[in-house]
Specification:
The chain is mainly alpha-helical. It has one domain (3-124, 165-251): 3-Layer(aba) Sandwich (Rossmann fold). Helix content is 51%, strand content 6%. The longest helix has 15 residues, at 10-24. The two termini are 27 Å apart. Mean pLDDT is 79; it is low at 1-22. One of its GO terms (biological process) is sulfation. Belongs to the sulfotransferase 1 family. GO terms for molecular function: sulfotransferase activity. Its EC number is 2.8.2.-.
């Protein structure tokens, strides 16, 4: 993919952001940005937390009949790409939950006028690149090719991506979470894997639906983690249809060690060290 294929025209960006700002200010919405960084898991957990009184078992829970990406659609990919004025009345529940790949600065203005909360899921970029490599191969219905991974690493190091450089997105939400922790929650995929119960309770608290002591004693936290586990979600029929299955591969931490060469690792580490120096954010 070349540079021109990764960049929207300024008119397209302007139209999307203008429409987005107008619609976002009309209601409460939750955003879960960035593709292939654990977004599927974050969407599932958010739905499970907000809908935990719905359905007595996994089989009749909304997640059993709707893919996380159906239940939490992307603004720019699923809604605004089809229409500059999408029908958001199809999402009547409050809070409504949507996701976006857009950087934080595009959300600053609407956030001033709307009680909107943002959950940002960050993941080690090396795992993101490997996940993206497999994702695009599945999309193209072909085997993974080493040359594609090499090209992705080079594009990353040059900051070339359809939604902008990785570091711009991550740092904007990281700083936003420090400046406005009431409205921006920064989560790490690796932390969620290492201490799932603590991180899910942290997410629930942020979303305004904390677990009661009775729920904790009754194992509600563990039940939600089981419902949203990789094995359980990937077993639902809805995630086997269409393109939904391409969002499920391994869900592991440090899988990049099985694919990236030493040279690739060094290139990525140099960029990360340069771009994140002094930010206080570590991977």
């Amino acid at each position: 993919m070349g540079d021109d294929d990764n960049i929207r025209t300024e008119n397209q960006k302007s139209n999307l952001f203008t429409s987005f700002r107008c619609r976002l200010s009309r209601g409460e919405d939750l955003q879960l940005p960035r593709m292939l960084s654990g977004t599927t898991w974050a969407k599932a957990l958010t739905v499970a937390l907000l809908e935990r009184s719905v359905g007595g078992s996994c089989n009749n829970h909304p997640l059993a009949s709707g893919s996380p990406h159906m239940l939490v659609p992307f603004f720019e990919l699923d809604l605004y790409r089809k229409s500059p004025e999408p029908d958001l009345t199809k999402f009547p529940s409050s809070p409504r939950v949507f996701s976006t790949h857009m950087p934080l600065h595009t959300l600053r203005q609407p956030l001033m006028n709307a009680p909107c909360k943002i959950v940002y899921m960050c993941r080690n970029v090396k795992d993101v690149l490997v996940s993206r490599w497999h994702f695009y191969a599945k999309m193209a219905k072909k085997e993974v090719e080493r040359s594609d991974l090499e090209s992705m690493v080079e594009s990353f190091c040059r900051g070339v991506h359809y939604f902008g450089p990785f570091w711009d997105s991550v740092l904007s939400y990281w700083r936003g979470s420090l400046e406005d922790p009431e409205h921006v929650l920064f989560m790490k995929y690796e932390d969620l894997k290492a201490e799932p119960c603590a991180q899910v309770m942290r997410l629930a608290e942020f979303l305004g639906c904390p677990f009661s002591q009775e729920e904790k004693r009754g194992g509600s936290v563990e039940k939600i983690l089981e419902l949203c586990s990789f094995g359980n979600l990937s077993s639902f029929d809805v995630n086997h249809t269409g393109t939904h299955n391409i969002f499920f591969r391994k869900g592991e931490v440090d899988d990049w060690k099985n694919h990236l060469t030493t040279e690739m690792q060094k290139k990525i580490d140099m960029v990360i060290q340069e771009k994140f120096q002094g930010s206080g954010l570590e991977f």
